[in-house]
Design goal:
3-stranded antiparallel sheet, alpha+beta, 4 helices
């Protein structure tokens, strides 16, 4: 059965180990799984998450969040909802697959800050050359209080 959907890039990366396990279980089948099938596969392949996902509505909440974030899709099969991995979903690295590179950190505390140079059009500051009249006294553009 060919599903029609608009391609959606995942908006968030998978950070929770339980969510990674859910996506891995769903990717392991090509026809999709119902919620009961997902929970059975989790019990078989990832028993450490059974207690966490067996709580009422926890699995359905996670499946809903994974669907809205673009990692899996939901469709109807025999009056029940089933979930299938989206083809362009990025590969999920398992926990022990290797070294994860941390995000780049910019050093903003060393050096001196130089603001960007603003490019003014010719004649934009001509009004600064004309003194103002304030309380009977002529004042330059720059205040004499500063």
């Amino acid at each position: 059965m060919k599903l029609s959907y608009s391609p959606v890039r995942p908006r968030r990366s998978l950070t929770s180990s339980a969510n990674i396990a859910i996506v891995q279980v769903i990717k392991s089948t090509s026809e999709g799984l119902t919620a009961d099938g997902i929970l059975t596969a989790i019990q078989r392949d990832h028993p450490q998450f059974v207690a966490e996902l067996a709580v009422k509505k926890e699995l359905s909440n996670r499946l809903s969040r994974l669907t809205t974030s673009g990692h899996i899709e939901r469709f109807r099969v025999d009056n029940a909802w089933a979930w299938k991995a989206i083809d362009h979903c990025p590969r999920v690295a398992s926990a022990g697959s290797g070294y994860v590179v941390p995000p780049r950190r910019l050093d903003v505390m060393s050096g001196t800050y130089t603001p960007p140079v603003t490019a003014l059009r010719p004649g934009a500051m001509d009004y600064a050359a004309v003194p103002s009249l304030h309380m009977g006294r002529r004042r330059a553009f720059r205040s004499d209080l500063a």
